[in-house]
Design brief:
Layout (H helix, E strand, L loop, with lengths): L1 H17 L5 H10 L10 H12 L6 E2 L8 E2 L4 E2 L28 H11 L9 H6 L15
Antiparallel strand pairs: 1-2, 2-3
Helix pairs in contact: 2-3
């Protein structure tokens, strides 16, 4: 039992060690390069604000505590009930992707799925953190020092 605990702790250490945590401007540049500025009517600042409040820009952010049994993955906290498959709960898997792919440092697949999410009728309201912290707010501070 003790060896399982030690291995679990080591696994957490290495997962945290390998996590990429973007700066606001670094993420803004990546999102802009991937066509997110103005995508489906949402400014780059909206995407950066949402990512900050969902994951604190951490590519390995994971929340396995949703009331409906689903989990959220990656920098955009993509939900397993609707958008990706995690093999532990039913999923619509609308992004046709394994959730674990959203926990690596390559966020191109995260961005592709976020584009799919925002095309739904709820738009960015699919992200509770965006609704609470970004919607109808002055977001100019998110890109102010980025020189994009």
């Amino acid at each position: 039992m003790r060896s399982i605990l030690i291995l679990s702790l080591l696994g957490c250490f290495f997962a945290a060690y390998e996590a990429k945590i973007f700066s606001k401007c670094e993420l803004a540049r990546k999102l802009k390069a991937e066509g997110m500025d103005g995508f489906h009517g949402y400014s780059l600042a909206n995407w950066v604000c949402m990512a900050e409040h969902e994951s604190n820009f951490n590519t390995r952010a994971f929340n396995g505590k949703n009331d409906n049994g689903s989990s959220d993955y990656g920098i955009f906290q993509i939900n397993s009930k609707w958008w990706c498959k995690n093999n532990s709960s039913p999923s619509a898997n609308a992004c046709n992707t394994m959730c674990s792919r959203f926990l690596d440092d390559n966020i191109s697949d995260d961005i592709a799925c976020a584009k799919r999410v925002v095309k739904d009728p709820n738009g960015m309201s699919a992200w509770v953190a965006w609704v609470r912290h970004c919607r109808n707010k002055d977001l100019s501070r998110y890109l102010a020092s980025c020189n994009l």
